[in-house]
Design a protein that fits this description.
The chain is α/β, with parallel strands linked by helices. Strands 2-8-7-6-5-3-4 form a 7-stranded mixed beta sheet, with helices on both faces. The protein has a 4-stranded antiparallel beta sheet with strand order 11-12-15-14, covered by helices on one side. It folds into 2 domains: about 260 residues, Type I PLP-dependent aspartate aminotransferase-like (Major domain) (Aspartate Aminotransferase, domain 2, 3-Layer(aba) Sandwich); about 110 residues, Aspartate Aminotransferase, domain 1 (Alpha-Beta Complex), CATH 3.90.1150.10. It is about 40% helix and about 15% strand. Helix 1 packs antiparallel against helix 10 and helix 2 runs parallel beside helix 10. The structure holds ligand 7TS. The site of ligand 7TS has 18 residues, from helix 3. Ligand 7TS binds next to helix 3.
Length: about 400
C-alpha cells in the first residue's frame, strides 16, 4: 500500500511539490474543508444563538450540527462536546475550571515527563495556586509510559492524572484504558491530551476511559481557531466556567450570575462559527477515508521510515523503534549536527520537518538533547516523501562529514 495517492489532489498546497512531514504541528487542508467554510461564509453566516432572523437560525443550526458531528466521531453525547479555541484552551479549562475547585494542599497531580507544555504548564500554575503537588510519570528507556513507575506513584492523594494520548515528540501511545482504570481505582479524574491521538486514531470515549479529552481541529485537516473539550457529563458538572461573558449565563444581576446548561456554560462569547463548519467538513473527510485506515497508513509509513532511518549514518531515533503502541511521529538527531541545521538542509531538498524542543522541554532534558528533528505523517504522505527525507538526510550527513 502506498497511502491514498488519489486524495493528494484534494490538497492544493501539495502542488508546490513540498514533502510535508510536519502534520504533528498542523495539518494541511483539503478542498472540501476550504469549500465548506467558503460556502457557509458566503451564504449562511451570522452570529449564533442570538437572532430570530433566518440567517442566524441557519448559522446556529450549522454550528450545532458541527457539535453533533464531533459527538458522533467520538461516540459521545453532543452535550458533552464543548467548543474551545484549541487543545491548549481545553486543557487550561480543565486545569483551572476543575482543578481550582477540587485541588488543595496534600492533593497530588500526576502528569508525565513527555507532556507537551499545554498539558504541563497549566497544572504547574494550578498546583502553585491550590497548594497541590505535581509529580511526573517517567518514560522507559525506549520512550514509553512507565507503567510500573506509574503504579508506584499512584495513591489516594492523586486527584488527577493528566497525560498525552500520543506523544507529539516520540509518537508513543500510552495505553489509556489501563492507565485510566488504575486512576479510577483511587478516584482520580483522568485528563487525556488527545491533540495528536484524535487526528490519527479513531477514539471512542465510551471505551477510552478518560473523563476529559482535549484536541485541536487544525491537526485533523480542519481550520485553526477551534478545538474541543469533551468531558463525561458527571465530570463537566464538577467544573466551574473558566471564562464569563455572553452566551454562558442563565441570568445576570448587577452582583451575580447563574450559568446556562452545559455545554453553553463553557462557551463564553462569540465562538469560532466558520471554523466549526470547517471542522465538521474535516471530520466528514476523515471518516470517508476511515480512521482505521488512516492509523494503518501512518503506521505503514512509520515502519518503512524506522527501517530506512536506521541505515542512515549518524542518525539516532528517539522513542520507540518498533510499531508497538506508537503512531506516525519520529524524532531524530544526527551526530555532531544541530537539529535546526538538519531541518534547514532538508528544507533545501523540499522536505518540511520540524526542529526544536516541540514544546516538550522537560522531555528533551530526559533525552539529553537540546532539540530533535521531527518527522510526522498524515493521510497525504507517501513513500516518496520518505525517499526524499532519507536522501536529504544522506546529503546532510555528507555535508557535515558524518559517518
Ligand atoms: N498537546 C499536544 C500533544 C500537542 O502536540 C499540541 C500541539 C498541543 C497539545 C497544543 O495544541 P494547540 O493546537 O492548542 O497548539 N503540538 C504542536 C507541535 O507538536 N508542534 O507544534 C504544535
Amino acid at each position: 500500500m502506498n497511502g491514498f495517492p488519489d486524495l493528494r489532489a484534494d490538497f492544493p498546497i501539495l502542488e508546490t511539490g513540498v514533502h510535508f512531514l510536519d502534520s504533528g504541528a498542523s495539518s494541511q487542508k483539503p478542498v472540501p474543508v476550504l469549500e465548506a467554510m467558503d460556502r457557509f461564509a458566503r451564504t449562511s453566516y451570522a452570529n449564533v444563538h442570538r437572532g430570530a432572523y433566518k440567517l442566524s437560525v441557519a448559522a446556529t443550526e450549522a454550528y450545532e450540527a458541527a457539535r453533533q458531528r464531533v459527538a458522533r466521531f467520538l461516540n459521545a453525547d453532543p452535550d458533552e462536546v464543548i467548543f474551545t479555541r484549541g487543545a491548549t484552551t481545553s486543557l487550561n479549562m480543565v486545569a483551572f475550571g476543575w482543578g481550582m475547585q477540587h485541588l488543595g494542599p496534600g492533593d497530588r497531580i500526576l502528569t508525565t515527563v513527555m507532556e507537551h507544555h499545554a498539558n504541563l504548564v497549566p497544572w504547574q500554575m494550578v498546583a502553585r495556586r491550590t497548594g497541590a503537588t505535581l509529580d511526573h510519570v517517567p518514560i522507559t528507556a525506549d520512550g514509553r509510559f512507565d507503567l510500573d513507575a506509574y503504579r508506584e506513584k499512584l495513591d489516594e492523594r492523586v486527584k488527577v492524572v493528566a497525560f498525552t494520548g500520543m506523544s507529539n515528540a516520540l509518537g508513543t501511545i500510552p495505553v489509556t484504558p489501563l492507565i485510566a482504570s488504575l486512576a479510577h481505582e483511587v478516584d482520580a479524574r483522568v485528563v487525556v491530551d488527545g491533540a495528536q491521538l484524535v487526528p490519527h486514531r479513531g477514539v471512542d470515549v465510551k471505551t477510552l476511559g478518560a473523563d476529559f479529552l482535549a484536541f485541536s481541529s487544525h491537526k485533523m485537516l480542519g481550520p485553526t481557531g477551534i478545538g474541543v473539550l469533551w468531558g463525561r457529563m458527571d465530570a463537566l458538572e464538577e467544573m466551574e466556567p473558566f471564562e464569563g461573558g455572553g452566551e454562558m449565563i442563565a441570568d445576570v444581576t448587577l452582583h451575580d450570575a447563574t450559568w446556562a446548561p452545559i455545554p453553553h456554560r463553557f462557551e463564553a462569547g462569540t465562538p469560532s462559527i466558520i471554523e466549526a463548519v470547517g471542522l465538521h467538513a474535516a471530520i466528514d473527510y476523515l471518516d470517508s477515508i476511515g480512521m482505521d485506515r488512516i492509523f494503518a497508513h501512518d503506521r505503514h509509513l512509520t515502519a518503512i521510515a524506522l527501517e530506512r532511518l536506521a541505515d542512515v549514518p549518524g542518525v539516532r531515533i528517539h522513542g520507540p523503534r518498533d510499531l508497538e503502541d506508537r503512531g506516525g511521529v519520529i524524532s531524530i538527531t544526527m551526530d555532531g549536527t544541530h537539529a535546526h541545521d538538519l531541518a534547514t538542509i532538508l528544507d533545501e531538498h523540499g522536505v518540511a520537518v520540524r526542529a526544536g524542543h516541540h514544546c516538550a522541554k522537560p522531555l528533551m532534558r530526559e533525552l539529553g538533547v537540546a532539540a530533535t528533528a521531527r518527522v510526522s505523517f498524515y493521510v497525504y504522505n507517501t513513500e516518496e516523501d520518505i525517499d526524499a527525507l532519507v536522501s536529504g538526510l544522506r546529503k546532510a550527513g555528507e555535508l557535515f562529514g558524518v559517518g
